[in-house]
Structure formats: structure tokens, C-alpha cells
């Protein structure tokens, strides 16, 4: 199995290499790919050094699968070229997510929709993945009517420049900014750019992608996405109104029995999920499970996950694992 990692020198790309090694993905050849300016750089995979190649070279090397995390512009131009060469692309950018001919996959939820004809597969946005991981089994049982989501997002979602900005501000050093404002000791209610409706692209991803993955356009979703000076992962406060009532213990049992979800919920012991605990782990963590007494059939949840892992790299690699296990490559 020849695997290309496109964007291998970026934050997600580096975590992809870590997760491929951790999960012992059955690859016989690794092809690290990046933009021309990074060609010739080296990456390390399983203690071996690999030279980064350019995109055209990577196509000509004919990997079986290409894991993309190189931004929407690169993906729009190059994913079709890889696909035309018979290479299956799993893309982390937003480029293909809402394309009606492309599948938007969280393996625990909808991998069974995949077929050999899917040559460009979209990996959902990180904040969407952790949300639907917790909500999909509850939607199946009770039917979701409406979601109100507030996110508290790690600066790693923005990238290296944001991590450096926080470090500089913490050290009192002047430097380049990833954000319009200081992020140290701050909270910025803007993740990505604003759309004409006054919501950010990040907020609208939570709306549109959730409906697509759960295959239910009747689910009403509204979101506020906030950037906070944290690096371990994204947190989300979720208020969910169901079509039918629920039993709180049954909700907890459903979540405890959901693959990829860990329930951490014991307020007597001050146990609840936090980015510090989620960082470096592949599960989605759920806590603060409680009924919303202000409205019938409504639940509050707190959901935390490492946005570079289940929010990006791990989900991407799990899709590839599914393709391999089901002979879909
Ligand atoms: C963010 N989810 O956190 C977006 C892209 N990674 O900025």
C-alpha cells in the first residue's frame, strides 16, 4: 500500500505521520508531499527519514491513497488530478465537503456509504466531527430537532502562525499575528471569515456538515465559534432538543457504548473533559451530561477532542483503514 501524505510538513500532516505509525497502518511506501518550496525537506516516519516531493511527482509515483491536508486551493486543483490517475483522495479541506457528488465521512457514522467509485472523499471539519460523534447515536435513538452549539477552539486549528502568536504574546515579544487581535488572555468570537448572513464559515460548517453527515436537513442548528488561547483541542457546549423525550441514564449508557467516545462525567469527583486531557488522544470526550430543565426533551453536553487527531488526522486515517479493510481502494 503506497500512501501519500499531501501537506506532510504542516501541523495536521505531522500528526498524520504520527497516527499512521501508531496505528501501524499497512503501508509499504510513504510519499511525503508538499509545495514546491518544501521539496527536498525531510520528514521522519518510524525513525526513517523521507524526502518531501512535489505534487506532480507524487501523482507519477501512483500511490494507492493520498491523505490531503494542504488547503482548499491545492485540493481543488490537485485532488481531481490524483483521482484521474486512479488514486483515492481523502481531503481535510472544506473544498469538497458540500459537493453533492462527494461523501463527507466519519467512519463510525457513515463509512458504509463508501464505494470503489469514491475517488475524492471529504473529511469533515474538526468541530463537526467531535459534535456528530457524540450526537449520531442520540439522533438515531431520539431524533434531533434543534442544536445550539458554542465552541471554544484551540489555536492549533488555525496553524503554526497562531501557535507562534500566542507564544510571542505570552513572552511579550512583538511578532506576526494570525488573528486580528491578541489571543493571549483573550477570546475571539471569530473562527474563519464572516459570510453574508453574519455567521462565520466555521459556524456554518457546523450547520451544513452536521445535516449532511446525519443525512437530515430538518435538524435545526445554530452555532457560535470562539477562538481561545488553548492548544490541546476544541471544546463545545451543546444544547440539543430531541423529538422524543429521553432517560438521562440511557443517554449515558448509549454514549458509553459508542465506539470512539469516552464519557468522563462525575461532578462529585470534579470529572469532566478538558483539552489538557484530550490532547494527543483519538477519542471524543463527553461530560456535563444533564437535562436542560428550561425546556422539555432537551439535553446539555460538553464535548472535547484533539482537533488535530479525531478532528483531522485520525478520522482521515480511519477512513483509509475502512477502505483497505473493505477492499475499496
Ligand atoms: C479551525 N476548524 O479550528 C478550523 C480549521 N481547522 O480553525
Give the key terms.
329 residues; diaminopimelate biosynthesis; Aspartate-semialdehyde dehydrogenase; 14 strands; threonine biosynthesis; 6-stranded parallel sheet; binds 3-amino-D-alanine; NAD(P)-bd_dom_sf; EC 1.2.1.11; 6-stranded mixed sheet; globular; alpha/beta
Could you give a quick summary of the protein structure above?
With 329 residues, the chain is α/β, with parallel strands linked by helices.
Q: What can you see in these coordinates?
A:
- With 329 residues, the protein is of the alpha/beta class.
- The chain is built from 10 helices and 14 strands.
- The strands form 3 sheets. Strands 2-1-5-6-8-7 form a 6-stranded parallel sheet, sandwiched between helices. The protein has a 6-stranded mixed sheet with strand order 10-9-11-14-13-12.
- Helix 5 (126-142) crosses helix 10.
- The longest helix has 17 residues, at 126-142.
- The model has no long low-confidence stretch (mean pLDDT 98).
- 3-amino-D-alanine (2RA) is lined by residues 125-127, 153, 157-158, 191, 202, 307.
- Residues 2-117 form the Semialdehyde dehydrogenase NAD-binding domain.
- The active site is at residues 126, 234.
- This is Aspartate-semialdehyde dehydrogenase.
- Belongs to the aspartate-semialdehyde dehydrogenase family.
- One of its GO terms (molecular function) is aspartate-semialdehyde dehydrogenase activity.
Amino acid at each position: 500500500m503506497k500512501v501519500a501524505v499531501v501537506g506532510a510538513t504542516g501541523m495536521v500532516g505531522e500528526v498524520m505521520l504520527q497516527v499512521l505509525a501508531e496505528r501501524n497502518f499497512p503501508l509499504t511506501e510513504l510519499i511525503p508531499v508538499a509545495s514546491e518550496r518544501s521539496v527536498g525537506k525531510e520528514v521522519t516516519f518510524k525513525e526513517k527519514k523521507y524526502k518531501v516531493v512535489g505534487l506532480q511527482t507524487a501523482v507519477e509515483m501512483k500511490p494507492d491513497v493520498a491523505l490531503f491536508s494542504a488547503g482548499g486551493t491545492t485540493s481543488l486543483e490537485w485532488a481531481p488530478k490524483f483521482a484521474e490517475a486512479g488514486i483515492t483522495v481523502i481531503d481535510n479541506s472544506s473544498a469538497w465537503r458540500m459537493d453533492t457528488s462527494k461523501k463527507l465521512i466519519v467512519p463510525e457514522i457513515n463509512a458504509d456509504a463508501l464505494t470503489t467509485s469514491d475517488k475524492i472523499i471529504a473529511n469533515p471539519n474538526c468541530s463537526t466531527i467531535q459534535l456528530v460523534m457524540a450526537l449520531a447515536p442520540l439522533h438515531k435513538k431520539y431524533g434531533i430537532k434543534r442544536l445550539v452549539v458554542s465552541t471554544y477552539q484551540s489555536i492549533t486549528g488555525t496553524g503554526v502562525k497562531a501557535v507562534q502568536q500566542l507564544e510571542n504574546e505570552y513572552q511579550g515579544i512583538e511578532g506576526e499575528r494570525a488573528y486580528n487581535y491578541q489571543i493571549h488572555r483573550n477570546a475571539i468570537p471569530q473562527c474563519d471569515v464572516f459570510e453574508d448572513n453574519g455567521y462565520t464559515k466555521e459556524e456554518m460548517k457546523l450547520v451544513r456538515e452536521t445535516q449532511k453527515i446525519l443525512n437530515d436537513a430538518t435538524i435545526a442548528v445554530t452555532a457560535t465559534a470562539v477562538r481561545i488561547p488553548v492548544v490541546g483541542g476544541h471544546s463545545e457546549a451543546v444544547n440539543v432538543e430531541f423529538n422524543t423525550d429521553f432517560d438521562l441514564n440511557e443517554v449515558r449508557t448509549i454514549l458509553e457504548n459508542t465506539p470512539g467516545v469516552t464519557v468522563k462525567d462525575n461532578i462529585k469527583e470534579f470529572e469532566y473533559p478538558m483539552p489538557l486531557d484530550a490532547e494527543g488522544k483519538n477519542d471524543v470526550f463527553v461530560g456535563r451530561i444533564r437535562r436542560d430543565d428550561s425546556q422539555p426533551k432537551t439535553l446539555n453536553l460538553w464535548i472535547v477532542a484533539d482537533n488535530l487527531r479525531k478532528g483531522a488526522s485520525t478520522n482521515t486515517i480511519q477512513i483509509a483503514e475502512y477502505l483497505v479493510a473493505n477492499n475499496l481502494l
